[in-house]
Automatic annotation (TrEMBL):
Region feature Disordered, mapped onto this chain: 50-74
The name this protein goes by in its record: Lipoprotein
Native organism: Neoroseomonas lacus
Assigned keywords, A-Z: Signal
Signal peptide: 1-31
Bias (Basic and acidic residues): 64-74
Protein origin, superkingdom: Bacteria
Length: 74
């Protein structure tokens, strides 16, 4: 059985490694950005919750508390 290192057999240039690392670390930062599409989606969610509460109001104190917690977390 031969022992060999895959990194040595398939070398990656340092520029490619830096690029991969930059993309890996920058991706979560881009996802945290609240753009206009995200804001519009949140407004639609709040409108849908209002319609749901008008059509099917919370039936008890626990359900009202759960919906209040949902609104606070968002």
């Amino acid at each position: 059985m031969h022992s060999y290192n895959l990194w040595m057999e398939y070398p990656m240039s340092s520029i490619a490694r830096i690029t991969c690392a930059a993309i890996l670390f920058a991706l979560p930062l881009v996802a945290c950005d609240g753009g206009p599409a995200e804001n519009a989606g949140e407004r639609l969610d709040r409108a849908a919750e209002g319609v749901r509460d008008a059509v099917d109001p919370p039936s008890g104190p626990i359900e009202r508390a759960g919906r209040a917690i949902d609104r606070a977390v968002d």
